[in-house]
Amino acid sequence: MLKSISYKIARWRLKKNTQRNFLIYCSVAVGLIGGLAAVALKYLVHLMEELSRNISSHLPYHIIYVFLPAVGILLTVAWQHLINRDKIQKGIGNILINIKKNRSNIRSNNIYSHLITSSLTVGFGGSSGLEAPIVCTGSAIGSNVGKLFNLSPYEKTVLIAAGASAGIAAVFNSPIAGVLFALEILIGEITIPTFIPLLIASATGVVVAKVLYSRQLFHLVTDGWVMTALPFYVILGLLCGWIAVYITKVAGKLEKGIFTNQNRYVRAIGGGLILGFILMIFPALFGEGYHYLQEILNGNIDALKEESFFSQWLSNPWLMLLFIAALILMKIVAAGITIGSGGNGGTFAPTMFTGAFLGLFVAFAVNQTGLVHLNISNFIAVGMAGALSGVLHAPLTSIFLIAEITGGYILFIPLMIVSAISYIISRVFSKHNMYWHELIHEKNIHPGQDYGMLNQISLDSIINHDFKVISKEMPVSDFYTILSNSKANIFAVLSKHGQLEGVVWMDEIRKHLFEIVQQEDTVADIMVAPPAIIHYGEPISDVMDMFDGLDVWQLPVIKDDKFIGFVSKSALLNKYREVIISQHKQADIFAR
Predict the structure, then answer these.
(1) How many CA atoms are closer than 13 Å to the CA of 125, on its beta-carbon side?
(2) Model-level pTM greater than 0.85?
(3) Where are the beta strands (DSSP E) in 325-419?
(4) What does the pLDDT look like over 104-134, one tens digit per residue?
(5) What single DSSP character describes residue 287?
(6) CBS domain: which residues (predicted)?
């Protein structure tokens, strides 16, 4: 049925000459569906979190928290294993892999799987965020809408970004931040033709969220900043940069898995119980943590004492300060355990939580000295932006997200200062954000647009299969006869079984061309080992790196240990030029 509908739409599109606007129509649809998904996720999680809190309120010291996370993570793992058959692709890193390596194709099951598994994880207390799952859901929606209408890889990439921006915008009611997130994290460049579909999808997602579920994650009420607070914003920026490095390293290690020698269900139960004990000691780490954050923003810092083992000591402001510092360090540990034991979530919300409590730590500490009074809400807001900027390497997203949440731009200068300082410090320790760092070092996938366009080229399209088979036993005189009737600059020397034994370069032949050929001279005397071999299926970006690094123009290709042809750098560059021209035409949606 879907194929029939897509075929009819394709015919209508061609007949009415509306292809220049079709991507806009698709972005509206993606924004609409993405907004609905965000609303469904927020509703499910808040429903389960309230249920969990109601149960825990009837028991001393949140004792139920010991078991709830294990239940949620266990159900998540069971869904992934038994129902989803391990086809879910968790994390923003997998979106980037699909964009770079899979022509922007994402499996359709990711449209609903993240909604179910993340709501189970976070709703039962898993200390992670919903932003990564909703980004994955929105991206899957965009990719599958593109596949439905047979759009090009570039157009599907735009729709993936549109779905992600709609999801972020709907969760935070922040349309500009949603667009900037998609541009800074997923696409990596800002162009007007790309910006417009994302803006439309983001706005559509926000409208849907406001109509169906207007409740915000939290409300930030801030005042204007004062010059006397400026040095402390600089200090906060420095601390945000260092805490961003801490988050990246700790989260990166824990998210790769805990109890790795055990089966998935043991990991889920073991990790869930460890997390449960952490939550019993630090109840503020339950779920996303926005509940306690909102209480502090309302001026009720004593909410941190609720059902805490340390409540009797937390009346001392300096012990409260130490407790806040412990929350800052433990939130990302709890998030890493949640994801590493099999739960589905992201580090976006834990990063915001950590940054918020870091801002609280600075303001609360300075206020205890009596030297100057700092606005705690302002520092909480700016701390969130600083931590996000350092972890995501996305300062624009961080600045505009907090500016939109606070409902104005009165904190714009502190947001800019803290985000910039945090970003610079984080870049000193890691050139790329936490998503790209793993992809570059473990999967050899790079963020540059050049790599993306290169990997759109099929190796088959540039292999020259027209070659003469020569053996190393062939007399040189016979080889010269072949050479006189050929325009090739390189020849492959093959065994009887088609395996490459060496190559003969035209440059090497010139050295012997005017020498007297001895009767016993064979090709074995003039052949050499190739400087490198291209293995069939190797990424084109790696092939280009070989050409540049070795300064050669032709290399042999091997498939299943047998020689199948040559690839020339000139053929690759010509194909690359075609891709650039094609992509520029696709990008200019108003020129088609």
Answers:
(1) 32
(2) no
(3) none
(4) 899 999 999 999 999 999 988 888 888 889 9
(5) T
(6) 527-586
